[in-house]
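Table S4 entry, Protein N-acetyltransferase, RimJ/RimL family.
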Amino acid sequence: MRHPLDTLDWPISTERLLLRRAAPDDLDATWAFRQLPETHEWVAAVTENYDDYRERFLREERLVDLLIVELDGRVIGDLTLKVQDGWAQEEVADQAKSVQGELGWTLDPSYGGKGYATEAVRALIDISFKSLGLRRLHADCFYDNEPSWRLMERVGMRREQHTVRDSLHRTKGWLDGLSYALLAEEWLAHE
């Protein structure tokens, strides 16, 4: 089945950035920042060496959801959009197909603090609602990953859930988790 991101004309420019679909050639550029300790700390799946990362990165199901963030031709981060079905009762389940998305992001820490992540995520939200017609977006993180939840708040996402020690971190044990979401009508009303 064709991914909704395949329906768009890429690349897409923002004020300072270029967003484009990921390609196998992005392996080295993404490895450069994803293997850093400060990035490694919070990504959902860690790879200990380049060969393992290459195998994971090149999986079709990984590349299909992945966008690359470029600044002046240099890869500075990546975004994910996993289009999902909404929960629905059986009689109306067909109306809930591919109506929401889960967002994710990883930015090279050396580019932090300059608003690039905010700009890139805002662009992805705009694409999700205006171009893809999604009705709802959500994102999750560990409570301890303050830069991530602060980003969610900066882009206008609402905190929907704070769970207590339900999220298992690979080195820190059981941590609190946060869930944020945003509806299309909320986004469009604040533009």
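The chain is about 30% helix and 30% strand.
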